Write a sequence for this structure.
């Protein structure tokens, strides 16, 4: 009696999940289609001729037209190569600035004891929630009054904050990471005669590499995609970064610019795609352990 | 938590011995460490002062003036509360931008979180290929705030865009969504929801923390899948829901890039996409009313602080921490 009642449930069990996993896969594939459609359409459109952009409903072009890329590249008085160089420089220097300054601050917060440490830490957490829009007007006025807006090196207003650990998020991330490094290592180094600087140099710095890499990757992607501050602080065409330059296409209302605009949009997302493909697992892990946003 | 505090009574006997140890650790600053602390902290401290604190004070001061960057400082006029008065009583476009931002956040954020949770539930089981799906769903979030993506999005919802081509397959005639004041903001909402990947990944991490014994116990009690979701998953997940809700709401309020691209920086069509931050940008940097823009920024800051405070004070009624501690 017992056996007969158990038997059906046992045999039913493996069946139900199997049929449901089928359904699950179908739903997921449908969502993937929705998620990827705009991206594939973007790439497809960038290879369509003007005629095709209007007429061809399909995702992919009937005839590949690479001309959009050459046209877009030289569409303005300044070539897109210059815009890419500008963006690359701003992004790479931001990576350096964030990595160095946030690491120093994080070490102080995570490992050193000094007066008012908890107060400063609370202030740092508080700045996490501070929207950049609140500070942009006075920052603009200050940087302008020092002659740094549109000056000889117009990127200083974008870079100075990054070298001063104002990206509280990365400080927080690194503090969390450093707290997981065993304190016994500090003690051992101290017994060997190392001071705070020695411990930083020989214990914390080498062990913080994963946190540094995460910071570097997100710092690069965010700066590459960043728009608001670059829009406010860059005023000369030749200083424009890629996001600001892309808005030039919107200004030129002529429909003929759609193809070149898509071509440049695709190119501008390439570095992020490369990072995504190379670090996909890490990006996803990074976000779920820390709540990083895309 | 209850388990780890269990041995406490035995320690209580030596309680008089215990306190000095932590007090000593906090009180004794090792030789040179206090100085080193400030040396390592100095870039951050300078940044706090020069990039955050001084600009904040300056912005507070400017909010009581008619500063416009073109007139010299000596001629800047102190106007008292006039900027704030104008904002609340005599600026329909400000009220309009508040409404636009609120409706954007109220609709897009819950839908985005629902999508994120739904997909997370679908992915919450180990099988081959789950990592690939997770990565692909996360990709839009990564491209999220970029101008390039906003451009693509706007064109997709144009008259000749991909969305209307899709509707045409079903014989539905589309419209130029982004040029229609009734639909422009909705296309931006769809863009925001499409980027559900980031909260999804956080939900996935949260789902992994739910002990499977709870589901086993619930199914032994005969609870349906739906009941298990309502009575086990949701309460156990509430801290993560809370975290995502606060973060996405604040993000939602700050939406700028897509609204700027859609309207070429004007907030159109007919102000339908005039998000608060876009309005602030136009006021400060197009119309050069920097005093007024500063007042707008302060109201924005206070609003975000208030909303966060409301979240945290109501959170204790529905956010459940499994260790029984109130955060």
């Amino acid at each position: 009696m017992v056996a007969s009642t158990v038997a059906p449930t046992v045999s039913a069990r493996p069946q139900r999940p199997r049929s449901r996993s089928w359904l699950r896969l179908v739903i997921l594939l449908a969502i993937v289609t929705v998620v990827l459609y705009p991206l594939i359409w973007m790439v497809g459109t960038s290879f369509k001729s003007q005629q095709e952009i209007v007429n061809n409903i399909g995702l992919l072009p009937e005839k590949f037209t690479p001309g959009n890329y050459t046209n877009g590249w030289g569409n303005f008085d300044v070539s897109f190569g210059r815009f890419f160089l500008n963006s690359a420089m701003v992004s790479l220097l931001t990576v350096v600035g964030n990595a160095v300054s946030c690491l120093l601050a994080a070490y102080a917060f995570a490992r050193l004891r000094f007066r008012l440490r908890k107060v400063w830490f609370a202030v740092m957490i508080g700045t996490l929630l501070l929207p950049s829009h609140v500070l942009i007007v006075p920052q603009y006025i200050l940087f302008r009054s020092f002659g740094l807006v549109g000056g000889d090196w117009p990127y200083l207003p974008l870079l100075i904050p990054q070298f001063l650990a104002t990206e509280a998020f990365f400080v927080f991330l690194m503090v969390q990471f450093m707290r997981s490094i065993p304190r016994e290592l500090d003690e051992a180094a101290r017994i060997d005669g190392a001071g705070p600087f020695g411990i930083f140099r020989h214990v914390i710095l080498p062990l913080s590499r994963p946190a540094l890499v995460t910071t570097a990757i997100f710092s690069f992607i965010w700066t590459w995609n960043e728009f608001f501050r670059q829009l406010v602080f860059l005023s000369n065409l030749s200083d424009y970064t890629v996001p600001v330059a892309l808005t030039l296409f919107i200004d030129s209302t002529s429909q003929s610019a759609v193809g070149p605009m898509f071509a440049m949009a695709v190119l501008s997302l390439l570095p992020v795609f490369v990072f995504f493909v190379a670090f996909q697992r890490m990006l996803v892990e990074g976000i779920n352990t820390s709540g990083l946003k895309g | 938590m209850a388990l780890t505090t269990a041995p406490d009574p035995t320690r209580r006997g030596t309680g008089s011995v215990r306190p000095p140890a932590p007090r000593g650790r906090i009180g004794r600053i090792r030789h040179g460490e206090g100085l080193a602390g400030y040396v390592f902290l100095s870039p951050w401290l300078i940044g706090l002062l020069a990039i955050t604190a001084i600009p904040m004070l300056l912005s507070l001061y400017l909010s009581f003036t008619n500063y416009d960057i073109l007139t010299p400082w000596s001629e800047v006029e102190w106007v008292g509360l006039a900027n704030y008065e104008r904002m609340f009583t005599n600026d329909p476009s400000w009220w309009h931008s508040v409404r636009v931002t609120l409706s954007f956040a109220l609709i897009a954020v819950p839908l985005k979180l629902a999508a994120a949770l739904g997909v997370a539930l679908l992915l919450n089981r180990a099988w081959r290929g789950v990592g690939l799906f997770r990565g692909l769903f996360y990709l839009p979030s990564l491209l999220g705030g970029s101008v390039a993506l906003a451009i693509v999005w706007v064109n997709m919802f144009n008259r000749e865009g991909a969305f209307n081509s899709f509707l045409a397959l079903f014989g539905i005639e589309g419209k130029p969504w982004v040029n229609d004041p009734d639909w422009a903001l909705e296309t931006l909402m769809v863009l925001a929801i499409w980027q559900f990947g980031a909260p999804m990944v956080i939900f996935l991490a949260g789902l992994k923390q739910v002990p499977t014994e709870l589901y086993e116990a619930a199914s032994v009690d005969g609870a349906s899948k739906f009941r298990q979701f309502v009575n086990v998953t949701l309460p156990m997940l509430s801290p993560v829901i809370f975290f995502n809700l606060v973060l996405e709401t604040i993000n939602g309020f700050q939406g700028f890039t897509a609204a700027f691209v859609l309207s070429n920086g004007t907030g159109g069509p007919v102000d339908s996409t005039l998000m608060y931050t876009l309005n602030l940008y136009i006021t400060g940097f197009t119309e050069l009313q920097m005093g007024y823009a500063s007042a707008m920024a302060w109201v924005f800051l206070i609003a975000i602080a208030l909303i966060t405070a409301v979240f945290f004070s109501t959170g204790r009624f529905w956010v459940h921490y499994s260790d029984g501690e109130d955060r």
The CA atoms of residues 111 and 183 of chain A lie 9 Å apart.
